[in-house]
Design brief:
about 240 residues; alpha+beta; single chain; about 20% strand; seven-stranded antiparallel beta sheet; globular; 9 strands; two-stranded antiparallel sheet
Length: about 240
């Protein structure tokens, strides 16, 4: 998926149990990459984008992810629209979060109750670290601050996703007929990482209009940094006390 995935586990389980669980989670991530990579011309998604296959001929994961994409598109009034991608449907704005969430589920199924999986800023967590009573304390990188200090530190109990152009260069596109907002960084927290991932993508191109939409969604909160350095957030986002 063009990024690095890291794991943090807090557990009394034996080391070999933890290692086996992480290996299984990594295998799932590699499988997701094999199915959804738009860089691999032979992946099922690449073949779908070229019109070589139809939905019924594809792995079931694609139907699941496209269903989530449709739901995210409806929630954002089309600001998140994988079907508007120039070369055909591209679920990249949601699928990394989906894959990271599945990797965390694999750890939980192995009996690991306190863990974090971080896939390039898409983060799924479970449990509560003993030194962080508000949940997992996650620092959100500032897009251009040279001192390395985080823009915010958020208390996260389930998922957080951040989207912007400062890590991978310009890679986000506004749906046809809409002008992208001047957003430097967009962060969304909530109960579902796939949905938080999609909402962060929409927020990064729709700006304050999408921020207002997220404000109305139960369980989701958002924070953005505009291109001029000004900030805005939904009223319920949980900033950690440091």
């Amino acid at each position: 998926m063009g990024t690095v995935v890291s794991f943090k586990v807090v557990s009394d389980e034996p080391g070999d149990v933890i290692a086996a669980a992480i290996r299984a989670a990594c295998a799932q991530l590699h499988q997701a990459d094999a199915v959804f990579s738009t860089w691999n011309p032979d992946s099922p998604v690449s073949r779908l984008r070229r019109g070589e296959v139809v939905a019924g001929e594809l792995p079931p994961e694609i139907d699941e992810v496209l269903g989530l994409c449709a739901a995210a598109s409806a929630l954002t009034c089309g600001w998140f629209d994988p079907w508007a991608a120039p070369a055909g449907v591209d679920p990249t704005g949601l699928v990394k979060g989906w894959a990271v969430a599945r990797a965390l589920t694999t750890l939980q199924e192995a009996g690991l109750t306190t863990a974090m999986v971080n896939g390039g800023g898409d983060i799924a967590v479970c449990g509560q670290p003993p030194d962080q009573p508000g949940g997992w304390r996650i620092g959100i990188r500032h897009p251009w601050r040279a001192d390395g200090l985080a823009a915010i530190i958020a208390d996260v109990t389930s998922a957080v996703a951040t989207s912007g152009h400062y890590e991978r260069g310009y890679h986000l596109y506004s749906p046809a007929g809409r002008s992208a907002a001047a957003v430097a960084s967009a962060t969304v927290t909530g109960p579902s990482l796939p949905m938080a991932d999609a909402l962060a993508t929409a927020l990064a191109v729709g700006g304050d209009e999408v921020l207002r939409m997220i404000e109305a969604l139960e369980g989701y909160e958002a924070y953005l940094i505009r291109a001029d350095g000004s900030e805005a957030e939904t009223c319920g986002i949980a900033f950690a006390q440091v």
